[in-house]
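User: Run a structure prediction on this.
Assistant: Running it now.
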Amino acid sequence: MSIAWRIWLWAAIVRALKHVVPLQLLVRWLCPADQTPRSRAAVEPALAAYLMTRGRFPRRPPGNCLDRSLAAYRLLCAGGARPQLVVGIRPEGRGLLGHVWLVVDGEPFAERGDVESYVSIVRFDERGRREPAAGGVADLAGIHWA
């Protein structure tokens, strides 16, 4: 199955589950136990290239950053890339703008936007474990995503 179909499949699964499963549990569930580092070279470049494409379905990745990042996180974890999933916020007008992205080897992975302008409030490692982040939040157990 191609990278495009795999990411769209996982994004569809995530899109349904994010309404009923707290983020911390969803991220942990997306981490496969059988991570195989030897496949990283096959998955990472193809996924990065796909995430940077534009066009119509299925030639472009999902538009929602949470769905897209969680699906890509699943594929990168399965390929042994050791990604971090980052949730950040920044002031926007009179409110806050949120964004979710991936970090691989200390660098934003296939990210078009300016992630440096966001304050990281939570990070998850390649095993789905929550890591300390700059902004921090007290409890993610009750967070659901619209």
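The chain has a mean pLDDT of 85.
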